[in-house]
Amino acid sequence: MVNRKELNPESGPGAAFGARLRRAREARGWTQDELAERMGYTGRHVSGVETTSKPPTRRFSISADAAFGLDGTSDTFERAWREIKHGALLEGFPEYLGLEARAVEIRLFEIGIIPGLLQTPAYAHALAQGDVHRATITLEQATERVSVLAERQATLVRPRPPTMLVVMDESCIRRPVGGDAVMREQLQYLADFAALPNTMLQVAPYDIGERRPFNLPINLLTLPDRSMIAYAESQAQGHLEREPAFSQTALAAYHQLQAESLSQAASVGMITQARKGTP
Questions:
Q1: Which listed residue, of 34, 64, 85, 260, carries a Cα 20 to 30 Å from 172's Cα?
Q2: Per-residue pLDDT reduced to its tens digit, 187-236
Q3: Residues 9-85, CATH architecture
């Protein structure tokens, strides 16, 4: 083939994505234009993704899955895209997102920042911009991060939403993010969240001291078959744990955390005081 660019899938996640796209296309005997027509793109765009001159997007990945009949499988182009976006530092997170969307119960514990599923767009944007300022992510990655968070939140708005139990360390509501207006809006959102029929919101106060059973954030999911998945994340990486013994131990610790934390009424009271700027 004239001007056919050789691909090296080992050179990076984007190159691996492009090489896989080409292999799948050629296995079906399609030209770039033929695949593009099935996906709603141009042949030039498909070529750009294959050769890494254009980064794949979520929309492009979903379109590729539809074209190749990969919807509902465990090895989709969308999953590959999520792995590119979240990177190796968040190992297990792309798979966690799919499980979170199916969970019937979600238990969260967070330290330092409002849990992602409860963040307002302005709060999430401020956090992402902070990472851009520190040059840990690009502006494009910041935009994608906020977009993915919005998608996660949207999956929870369904006819039978999951039960959500959230415990936040007091530092989450005390740490200012984005300025006074952003924080007031965020704290009001927490109070509104606590009023929903399928939620429970508690604050673990500073004086809980050594009785706080977790030193790192943790997410516990209960799936429709009642199995449990635990997801823990540090500054460097994330870990998805399916072992029942670990999940049951984490669940017992979570129950202890809830017992030591403020009641929902007292928690909302603290949040309301913080919103008004009173200690």
A1: 85
A2: 999 999 999 999 999 999 999 999 999 999 999 999 999 999 999 876 55
A3: Orthogonal Bundle (1.10)
